[in-house]
């Protein structure tokens, strides 16, 4: 983020006196190998006296002018971590400078220490003219009541450090600095961001925006520890939370479950100023999105995906829905979230097999659009296949997975931004799904989605090769890469006739004609394959049977 020759801070820290802006800021700069600047120290250096001396000699207005001028200059010429003085953000000129900095992609981090802790620390050291005269605690609290709402509004990142040591607080700040953000454009509704990183869930309150009075927190039992954290964050931010546990996985993705939630919302008086938060795997976020899309014909919702597949695929793009007896995802709505918070700390409890199936959709995105994903998967296949949530966080693999998640979400964002309702381009996201969905149905959904899609991609590659669109080497590469990740590449669970009948009911089919999406030449180049020759469709099926 730099204009010609200019530098901008990696982050600016604001907060009350004693919040730890200097102490925590220095810790973060050391952890990240960045230079650190404290605005107060820079001001004293510039004016050649201490701040108390300057206050007594020239008064606060003169000080705020010097301070805002220095802050504006530093924002345009310093590339490290920059901590402001406690009162700085109250100055309109500084607020304008910070707004410009955020517009340029900057992060203004509001370090939200526990008021009692910060007040005690601020009054411990003295040398703070704003606390002089009278009861320092009372003065601190009065300043807090004035400043907190302003800081909350100005900052685009909020980090609560209640009860944290300087090192713990620094880690939280660093996670927010290292967070990845993918912007998703939406033609017919509001754009939104997918935030990926440890602590992404901290954005819940800012993303929900105007305080809805109530939040329906929809989640499943296996992610209870993560929904507990979401609930705590929401309640600390002042929301009323209705806790709604739904059946796990596909059992929770039904109209019956949705009806039970609608009943709850009705009984508790949910209105259009209220919102939904979905925490869990793709099935939970699909159901939560469907409830949000239908309650009063649409209320805001935020997805907090907790599985790899939900992070890279299900939570983004606005497809919400439920299954019916006739099949998966047959009832639903295109309805986009206010935001997606992919908090990587939730992966700590994700079982290995659920992580691995999510790699199927990651690989798919590599084949259809971003070959760099394939290279990363190939390079780290062993570690990825051996994923262990208990030891994952803080390891180099976490950075690899964060990169894969960001890249895969970018692929999805590109397709859904251009074609929300799947009229054409978005169908490329269905690579491997025609056969994949047939396998899921034939297996009565005992096969996980990502695993079925992996076999489906091998099938699509065989079909494309039979019709001369790709060479044999690329088909073999599908098998070798997917197998190296621990994904299946063949299936023997049913007859071609049964599979064919199901493929004819695929949403891409038109009339009695099958439609596939396949590679055209190589990774990143896709084409629609309409009504392929029947013998090729069958031969490709026999080639995925071991
Ligand atoms: N809307 C879309 O665009 C879209 C895209 C792809 C998939 N989907 C849907 O998503 C679903 C598949 O998503 P999924 O693979 O996440 O399956 P899932 O939601 O069934 O979750 C898989 C299992 O993992 C558990 N789990 C999830 N996160 C966990 C965590 N952090 N710790 C411990 N356990 C955890 C769940 O409780 C569940 O038991 C399917 O219903 C599919 O149709 C939707
Ligand atoms: N999270 C923390 N835990 C314990 N002590 C802290 C913490 N943050 C700051 N401190 C201590 O509190 C005092 C004030 O911290 P400082 O960084 O100067 O606050 P600020 O710059 O926000 O006014 C310092 O003595 C610092 O070491
Ligand atoms: O957002 C989309 O378009 C997708 C929705 C899902 O497919 P279905 O719509 O076939 O369920 C998903 O599995 C696929 O990866 C992409």
Automatic annotation (TrEMBL):
As recorded in UniProt, its EC number(s) are 2.7.1.71, 4.2.3.4
> Which residues are recorded as binding Zn(2+)?
361, 433, 449
Q: Where does Mg(2+) bind?
A: 22
What does the cofactor field's note say? Answer: Binds 1 Mg(2+) ion per subunit.
Instruction: List, separated by semicolons, the cofactors it needs.
Output: Mg(2+); NAD(+); Co(2+); Zn(2+)
Q: Which residues bind NAD(+)?
A: 248-253, 282-286, 306-307, 319, 328
Molecular functions (GO terms)? 3-dehydroquinate synthase activity; ATP binding; magnesium ion binding; shikimate kinase activity
Which HAMAP family does UniProt cross-reference here? DHQ_synthase, Shikimate_kinase
**In UniProt terms, what function does this protein have?**
Catalyzes the conversion of 3-deoxy-D-arabino-heptulosonate 7-phosphate (DAHP) to dehydroquinate (DHQ). Catalyzes the specific phosphorylation of the 3-hydroxyl group of shikimic acid using ATP as a cosubstrate.
Task: Give the protein's recorded name.
Answer: Multifunctional fusion protein
Q: Which organism is it from?
A: Bifidobacterium biavatii DSM 23969
């Amino acid at each position: 983020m730099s204009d010609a020759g200019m530098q901008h801070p990696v982050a600016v820290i604001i907060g009350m006196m004693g919040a730890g802006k200097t102490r925590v800021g220095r810790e973060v700069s050391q952890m990240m190998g960045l230079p650190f600047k404290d605005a107060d120290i820079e001001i004293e250096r510039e004016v050649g006296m201490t701040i108390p001396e300057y206050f007594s000699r020239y008064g606060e207005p003169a000080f705020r002018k010097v301070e805002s001028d220095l802050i504006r200059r530093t924002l345009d010429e310093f590339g490290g971590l920059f901590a402001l003085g406690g009162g700085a953000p109250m100055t309109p000129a500084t607020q304008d400078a910070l707004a410009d900095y955020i517009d340029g992609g900057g992060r203004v981090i509001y370090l939200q220490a526990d008021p009692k802790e910060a007040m005690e620390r601020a009054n411990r050291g003295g040398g703070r003219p704003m606390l002089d005269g009278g009861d320092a605690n009372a003065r601190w609290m009065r300043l807090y009541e004035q400043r907190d709402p302003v800081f909350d509004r100005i900052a685009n990142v909020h980090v609560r450090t209640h009860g944290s040591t300087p090192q713990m607080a620094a880690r939280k700040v660093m996670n927010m600095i290292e967070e990845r953000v993918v912007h998703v454009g939406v033609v017919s509704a509001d754009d939104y961001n997918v935030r990926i990183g440890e602590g992404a869930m901290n954005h819940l309150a800012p993303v929900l925006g105007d305080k809805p009075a109530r939040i329906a927190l929809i989640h499943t039992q296996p992610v209870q520890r993560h929904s507990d954290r979401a609930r705590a964050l929401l309640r600390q931010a002042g929301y009323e939370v209705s806790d709604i546990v739904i059946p796990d996985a596909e059992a929770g993705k039904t109209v019956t479950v949705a009806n039970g939630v609608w009943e709850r919302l009705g009984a508790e008086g949910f209105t259009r100023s209220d919102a939904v938060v979905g925490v869990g795997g793709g099935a939970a976020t699909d159901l939560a999105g469907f409830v949000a899309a239908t309650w009063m014909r649409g209320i805001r919702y935020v997805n907090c995906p907790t599985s790899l597949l939900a992070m890279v695929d299900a939570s983004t793009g606005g497809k919400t829905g439920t299954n019916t007896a006739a099949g998966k995802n047959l009832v639903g709505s295109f309805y986009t979230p206010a935001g997606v918070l992919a908090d990587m700390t939730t992966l700590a409890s994700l079982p290995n097999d659920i992580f691995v199936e999510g790699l199927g959709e990651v690989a798919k995105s590599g084949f259809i659009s971003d070959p760099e994903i394939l290279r990363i998967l190939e390079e780290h296949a062993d570690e990825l296949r051996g994923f262990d949530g208990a030891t994952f966080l803080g390891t180099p693999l976490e950075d690899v997975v964060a990169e894969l998640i960001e890249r895969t979400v970018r692929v999805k964002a590109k397709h859904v931004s251009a074609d929300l309702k799947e009229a054409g381009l978005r169908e490329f996201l269905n690579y491997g799904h025609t056969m994949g969905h047939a396998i899921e149905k034939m297996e009565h959904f005992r096969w996980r989605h990502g695993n079925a899609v992996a076999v489906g991609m091998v099938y699509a590659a065989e079909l494309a090769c039979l019709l001369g669109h790709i060479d044999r080497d690329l088909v073999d590469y599908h098998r070798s890469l997917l197998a190296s990740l621990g994904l299946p590449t063949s299936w023997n669970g049913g007859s071609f006739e049964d599979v064919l009948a199901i493929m004819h009911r695929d949403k891409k089919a038109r009339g009695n004609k099958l439609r596939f999406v396949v590679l055209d030449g190589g990774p990143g180049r896709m084409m629609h394959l309409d009504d392929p020759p029947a013998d090729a469709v069958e031969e490709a099926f026999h080639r995925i049977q071991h």
